[in-house]
Write a structure and sequence with these properties.
Layout lengths: L2 E6 L4 H5 L12 H16 L6 E4 L3 H14 L7 E2 L20 H4 L14 H16 L5 E6 L1 H11 L6 H4 L2 H4 L7 E2 L2
Helix pairs in contact: 2-3, 5-6
């Protein structure tokens, strides 16, 4: 039986600077690096072994994957990168400041109406496609390294929840913290 684990990247500079990260490149901070290393050490202590690590190609995820791999003794050159695991695009907001203040006058669902943004429904469809691709792989224990919004969508797909749950669930209960490995399947 397959086991599927997920980890969101470590703290990024966009997280610290309150910038819409989306699909832009933003490096891990020193805290993010330490978080990723700690996640790898914790996985090793818990006896977690991954047959494959699959990562978003954005550097904050790839660097997290490499730090985890280093800590658990997984060969970094064997990490697989897949664009299906990219973070949600926030359209014209990607890379712009004041991400948190958006919610002073908008609800989360309003992001679906941002010019060029990927809707939550589109994101969940992409997460569903990625799950099919991942589950067809021959490996049994898989670690996916990705992003917050994508991780929530993937979790909803695994749990057979509709994309609309992104708008109705208490945000604090669905939040995915940086650099914590958890099991989806």
């Amino acid at each position: 039986m397959k086991s599927l684990y997920f980890i969101r990247h470590g703290e990024s500079q966009a997280n610290v600077d309150d910038v819409w990260g989306g699909q832009i490149e933003t490096p891990l901070t020193q805290v993010g690096i330490a978080q990723a290393q700690h996640a790898g050490r914790k996985a090793k202590l818990e006896g977690l072994k991954f047959d494959i690590i699959i990562s978003s190609p954005l550097s904050r995820a790839t660097d997290t994957a490499k730090f985890v791999a280093q800590e658990i003794g997984y060969p970094k050159e064997s990490i697989v990168y897949n664009k299906l695991l990219l973070e949600r695009s926030f359209g014209i907001l990607d890379g712009t400041p004041n991400a948190k203040s958006f919610f002073d006058s908008h609800e989360y669902k309003d992001l679906d109406n941002v010019e060029e943004a990927e809707t939550v429904e589109e994101l969940q469809n992409r997460a569903e496609k990625s799950l099919h691709v991942i589950m067809k792989r021959p490996e049994d224990s898989i670690l996916v390294v990705g992003h917050g919004a994508f991780g929530r969508a993937l979790r909803r797909v695994v749990n057979k929840q509709p994309y609309t749950d992104e708008f109705t669930k208490d945000w604090s209960s669905s939040y995915i913290p940086n650099a914590e490995i958890f099991q989806l399947i």
